[in-house]
Task: inverse folding
DNA sequence: TTCCGGCAGC
DNA sequence: GCTGCGGGAA
């Protein structure tokens, strides 16, 4: 069985269990972008509190956020954790978003994927996962988002070697699946849901839709990951 | 007490 | 490579 079939097998098992997850849970693309920064290494339940606090103060627009003092902003997003760092990152992102696209997600989405990705990565506080989350969930670009759950699940099911980095894992999906934003959206959502529910630090394999793990969790090298890059 | 939908600085 | 950032829920 090839890699494409392995991946689609995972997808089908998870999809049968969880169904459509309707990601990203947000009211509009700008809220997706804000959420993508706030959820960095943070439980989503805490991010929801910070988003709600921003909404309540009517600050969930590019202009309103850009006019909010950084220390004040930090206090408002406090429940999301790392609030001083994230206030600075939100500020930097919003300034970028206004300067480059006038605060318009449509304008941002009009550009080509790769140059846009590079520009996002140039914003301090925006790394690969945050950039790709914005590209996929806010701009609807066919970019696969990898994350800690994706890595853990693929490692445990021996679909990647132990030293696989973000780009390698992303490439595994993008080189072996059709470039379909709706597919990448649901696939990532399913991986996160499965990671939260079953593939925790201590795995709960018995009820997991992906079944039990090999006794030896050590990863084996993966053949046929597509070799080259899907883009560039 | 652990863990969370990363990233940057060193 | 290793560390700081951090409140909230399990």
Result:
């Amino acid at each position: 069985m090839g890699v494409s079939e392995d991946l689609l097998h995972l997808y089908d098992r998870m999809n049968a269990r969880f169904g459509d997850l309707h990601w990203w849970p947000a009211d509009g693309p700008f809220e997706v972008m804000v959420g993508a920064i706030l959820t960095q290494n943070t439980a989503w339940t805490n991010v929801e509190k910070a988003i709600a606090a921003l909404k309540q103060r009517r600050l969930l627009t590019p202009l309103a956020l850009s006019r909010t003092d950084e220390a004040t902003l930090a206090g408002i997003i406090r429940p999301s954790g790392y609030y001083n760092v994230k206030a600075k990152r939100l500020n930097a992102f919003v300034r970028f978003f206004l300067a480059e696209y006038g605060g318009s997600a449509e304008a941002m989405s009009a550009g080509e994927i790769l140059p846009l990705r590079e520009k996002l990565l140039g914003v301090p506080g925006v790394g690969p996962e945050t950039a790709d989350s914005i590209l996929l969930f806010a701009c609807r670009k066919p970019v696969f988002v990898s994350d800690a759950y994706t890595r853990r699940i693929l490692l445990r099911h021996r679909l990647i070697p132990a030293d696989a980095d973000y780009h390698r894992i992303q490439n595994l999906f993008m080189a072996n699946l059709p470039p379909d934003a709706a597919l990448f959206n649901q696939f990532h959502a399913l991986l996160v849901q499965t990671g939260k529910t079953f593939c925790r630090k201590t795995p709960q394999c018995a009820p997991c839709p992906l079944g039990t793990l090999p006794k030896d969790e050590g990863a084996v090298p993966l053949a046929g990951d597509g070799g080259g890059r899907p883009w560039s």
